[in-house]
Amino acid sequence: MRHTTLRQLEVFNAIVRHGSFTRAARELFLTQPTVSMQIKKLTDAVGLPLFEQIGKKLYPTDAGHLLYKFSCEIFDRFARFEMTIADMKGLKQGKLRLAVVTTAEYFIPLILGKFCQQYPGVDVSLKVSNRERVLQRMSENEDDLSIFGQPPEGVPTVAEPFLENPLVVVAPIDHPLAGRKAIPLERLAEQPMLAREAGSGTRMAVERLFAEHGLKMKVRMELGSNEALKQAVIGGLGISVLSRHTLPFETNEAKLTLLDVQGFPIERHWYVVYPAGKQLSVVAQAFRDSLLQGSRTLKYDKARNAGSSPQRSSARDSSGGIPLTRVSSR
Ligand code: PGA
Predict the structure, then answer these.
(1) Phi, psi at residue 107, to the nearest 5°?
(2) Residue 147 burial by Cβ neighbours in a 10 Å radius (0-12, 13-18, 19+)
């Protein structure tokens, strides 16, 4: 094994990720015979087959799985070393692997944009999935940092809140409950609801509130996208609960109103999370710091929160994260 080269491990790693020799060769700008040759040498050094072909698909064997984990650790350490050296030279360079839950796509790209302007040497990969999938990625150590609407439970993590994330009740502007004050939760439970898919953090928070009051949602339709939910509400299919971040004050949103229901808004926060014991890279550390520092200058405007129509609020925040109001940090 001591004759194994980093290049061979790189080729092997790419094949596992792509499940294909051809795609790995393309990623690494190599010819397919070169890729095959590198894998033959690596297989000889290990002394066990690294892949098996089932049907048209290529799978790593047990030895392959082990080697994949090992190669990821090596490349991770290598990347950290490179970033530390770049940091010593006064540059922030390297890769930032970020996974965020679906709803965070409304503000994370903006924050990332500013971060990348500040550190042009940073390469970002951003994965957007629902809570369940982001949790799974975290358990497989696929990302540097994850963003959740609620810290994971039952797994040792470091979770730091950086921004408010209220969940509000959204209805079509002409809904009979529009404009009423302090609507009891029981009234909401009678209404047909449009809900996010199982596995969504938003869905989980709403179900928890209902369960605390011995109630159950009357789910009329499940949708996997916040935007699709808003359109369905506008279309009169039912009421929904959404993060306030999904409701920019755009013309279309003037067709929506927020209902003043008891127990709402559900006050939540956005958390930046990583597994306990994980050593953050220099770049991940810098991004985490910028999120936490940003939270001191970004504050949620509660006045806009409940029972108000989006169309009545005029200001569109320059951050694009609509419910955020920039306040002086003094
Ligand atoms: P979701 O998560 O986009 O998976 O619903 C958001 C949240 O937890 O607030």
Answers:
(1) -135, -25
(2) buried
Ligand 1 within 6 A of CB of 201: yes
Instruction: Report helix, strand or coil for 122.
Output: strand
Element (H, E) at 187: helix 185-190
CB distance 245 to ligand 1 below 6 Å: no
Counting from 1 in the atom list of ligand 1, the atom nearest the Cα of 268 is 9
Structure tokens at 253: 């949103």
pLDDT of residue 249: 60
Tokens of 41: 């040498």
Return the best residue to mutate from 100, 202, 247 for the ligand 1 pocket (most ligand atoms within 8 A of CB): 202
226 CB near ligand 1 (under 6 Å): no
Does position 178 have pLDDT exceeding 70, yes or no? Answer: yes
Tokens of 158: 């470091």
Cα gap 180→255, rounded to integer Å = 17
pLDDT in tens, 283-298: 999 999 999 987 655 5
Q: Which ligand 1 atom is the nearest neighbour of the CA of 148?
A: 8
Mind listing the pLDDT tens digit for each residue in 132-151? 899 999 998 889 999 999 99
Q: Whose CA is nearest to atom 9 of ligand 1?
A: 149
Q: pTM of the prediction?
A: 0.71
Task: Characterize the bridge pairing of strands 298-300 and 239-243.
Answer: unpaired
